[in-house]
Design a protein that fits this description.
This protein has 75 residues and is an alpha+beta fold. The chain has one domain. It is 27% helix and 28% strand. The protein has three helices and four strands. It has a four-stranded antiparallel beta sheet, covered by helices on one side. The longest helix is centred in the middle third of the chain and has 11 residues. It is globular and about 30 Å long. The relative contact order is 0.26. The mean pLDDT is 93.
């Protein structure tokens, strides 16, 4: 089984916002760490879609496979 480090070494990731009615993505091609840092830095603020999706979910999605590899509630 691949570790998250092995899994993310050569892949790019997008940040996706979802709630019961809508979905938007940032169109990013970031490393996993960059995507996670973006969420950590902005969740709980009014930055970008974080304001619109409070109470929804923000996810990190593998651009290649479409797999959600991380998610948390938008604060």
């Amino acid at each position: 089984m691949e570790t998250i480090t092995e899994l993310t070494a050569e892949r790019t990731f997008n940040v996706v916002f979802n709630d019961s009615e809508n979905s938007n993505d940032k169109g990013f091609e970031l490393s996993y760490k960059e995507a996670k840092d973006y969420i950590d830095r902005n969740n709980g603020t009014n930055e970008s879609y974080f304001e619109d999706y409070k109470g929804g979910i923000v996810s990190i999605v593998d651009n290649e496979s479409g797999e959600t590899v991380y998610e948390e509630e938008v604060l």
